[in-house]
Amino acid sequence: MLPVIAHAIETVLLVTGLVMLVRCAFQYAFRTHKWHRLNVVLFNIQSLSTEEMKWWYAAMISLLLGGAMKFFSFIAFSYPQIP
User: What's the pTM value of the predicted model, to 2 decimals?
Assistant: First the structure.
């Protein structure tokens, strides 16, 4: 039961992080009207506004927590159980 809960938590965190990152990218594109420069959200964050930075930081925290949860569940539940 615990592996199922861990998988659900990591999936929710990773999907939420991706959605927040996409929202940040769309906010940047609407503000600057530069739809071809969406990679700025990932590589050049100095040009983001404060509202976009809030979404970027929330997305990074969610993605890092989801990645850590995935790593933890891999370590904790992938090895055979010792009787």
Answer: 0.82
